[in-house]
Amino acid sequence: MANTMQHQHIKWFGLIRILGLLMILGYHFFKVGYPGGFIGVDLFFVFSGFLITSLMIDEFSSTQRFDLIAFLRRRFYRIVPAVIMMILIVVPFTLLVSPDLITGLGKQIAAALGFVTNWYEIATGGSYANNFIPHLFVHTWFLGVEMQFYLFWGVLVWGISRLLKNPEVPMRERRVRFRGILFTLALLFTAASLYLMWQQSQGLKDFTPVYFSSLTHAFPLFAGALLATVTGVAVVPM
């Protein structure tokens, strides 16, 4: 039964990921007829925040602790090898096809590997609305937002788990407190990020800075985290 449940969850989340990808591709290739496709990125963010926070809650409920190093190690091995492989494939191909695109290549690679492409694009004036941005790894901006969320949220959750490490308090009560604190923080961060996006969008013609910024675009990640604290999950895809 457990295996059946797990396969059902994986299929369901897989369909959501495919839907998000199709929305993003539709936006970039059919922008005039499909202007709202960029919401697919937010869909990815919501489910990422949901899954990560679900795993955190499950780990604390089972072990009464949260292993930050193990958490970051899993994220590293899940994401970094794929990014390195992408760079190793894209750079030689670009040198053969269009050498003009190698301007500032070292900085682009450093930003991609450091998961700060979103801030690099803001600093260099990149535009998300432009289909032909001369930066090779501009689309790793979302990985920057995601990895920065993992680091911030991971450290915060680790600190909370340490504060609740009191053997005198019943295990069930610690679980309730842990979930309640995460709920409160996720709600506050969602509201704060949404407010910042609204405030900083006033009067803008190019919304790239607020779209790329981790501060203004963190709300779907924290909304997913908020959902995880409310619903909980018995089985999630690893």
UniProtKB/TrEMBL annotation:
Gene Ontology biological process: lipopolysaccharide biosynthetic process
Any Pfam family the entry gives: Acyl_transf_3
Key words of the record: Acyltransferase, Membrane, Transferase, Transmembrane, Transmembrane helix
GO MF annotations, alphabetized: acyltransferase activity, transferring groups other than amino-acyl groups
Domain (Acyltransferase) ranges: 11-229
Transmembrane annotation, as ranges: 12-30, 36-55, 76-97, 147-164, 176-198, 218-236
UniProt GO cellular component terms: membrane
Record's protein name: Acyltransferase
